[in-house]
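Could you join me in thinking about how sequence relates to backbone shape in a protein? We need material for that, and I hope you will provide a protein of your own picking. Label the sequence line and the structure token line clearly, so we can match residues to local backbone shapes. Would you write everything just below, so we can both look at the same thing?
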Amino acid sequence: MAAPAAVAADRVLDAALDRIRTIVGPKGWTDDADAMRPHLEDWRGLFKGKARMLVRPASTEEVAGVVAACNEAGIPITPQGGNTSLCGASTPDEAGDGIVLSLARMNRVRGLDAANHTITVEAGCILADVQARAADADRYFPLSLAAEGSCMIGGNLSTNAGGTNVLKYGNARELVLGLEVVLPDGRIWNGLRGLRKDNTGYDLKQLFLGAEGTLGIITAAVLKLFPKPTDVRSAFCAVPDIASAVTLLGRARAESGDAVETFEFMPRLVIDLVLKHMPDTEDPLQERYEQYVLLELVSTASGESDLGAKLEAILESAFEDGLVLDAAISQSEAQRQEFWKLRENASEAQKIEGASIKHDVSVPVSRIAEFYDAAWERVQKVDGDVRLVGFGHVGDGNLHYNLQAPEGGDGKAFMAKWERFNRAVHDTVVEMGGSISAEHGIGRLKREELAHYKDAVSLDLMRTVKAALDPKGILNPGKVI
């Protein structure tokens, strides 16, 4: 016979779950195993969790009601957008005592102010849809990443997403003017202001940007828009080494009037893996080289643009100085997209190839080349047969320093060295004043790494903020801190 305390606790739980079902209505929840399955596993297949049910509120008020009910009953909540997290931030744990709260039904564009260059969107809006809505108004929302067709803006902001345009426009947090957030006790903080100047105390929105749903649930945001580009020119360049790529970046920024929007680095192995596993892809250059960059210039000027001439001049001088070995300049949007297939399919091709250990890291741009070689030297001491798939956003100092299992090797034996590989890469990053997470966040994957590398004062401040806002610890427990 169950103890009276346990019976009482079960009654409180059942009452809270019934209350949640009433708040969101029949369309707003499910406990069907098949319907829930995609929400209980992360994209990489590293984490699988359980939950009592999947809750899909349709409004901020419904989110607030659900969170209040969970707070009173002590029910853990895992907020979720498109579930494209690479660190397990949107995956519940294995205890199965909480709920997954999906923002997918909250997908309205609440307003677009072209004169103010802002768009107000709900958290469940797909990133590509936000981009399209801005374009329809002759404006530009620059946040761009490979998962933009399925990731949601709430998740982008909660993880402070980066992507390919950070060099020119900054990370997600730099694209936000205002937020609407449901706090852990169910209160709604309305900070939806489209102001570029508001010096009235603490900038509260920054607490929730990059917090991965541990301090509050973002339900809507006011985002910055920019003039729509009138011309984009792309070049796929072979370079002698990564040091030459960094020099090319500086030259391109100076000689183009800082018109560089994208500067992506790729080693030959990335190209080979994409060509091997992804259909309808081709090598832009006739000869094989060891290192490449994808360089793009953008202009928002009206009338005829001289961007193409600028790009040709930059590449011509770089070729003469040995910074570029060969290059293909896109002659159409279709060809430009062919270049992008090689970059955007890098992660998917790695996944198909087999076991890999990924490191999303950043160092000062000036130390990219030094880091690349120093970390590789340490990695090879762990396993001399490992393959380096180090690619990414060299323009902003962010590399995806990924390690692929030896071809035909034992994947399990390779993955067993995960911690040793982490130390080789992350120790090098920290020694060079870098970060062990540039754009993917901490989630479940890097929680222990954060505790290992973050200084004691920072960790104490983070725990203090968490305890103040979420004293019962119901929001995304087991993530970040």
Remarks:
- The longest strand covers residues 231-239.
- Residues 4-24 form the longest helix (21 residues).
- The CA atoms of residues 435 and 454 lie 10 Å apart.
- The radius of gyration is 23 Å.
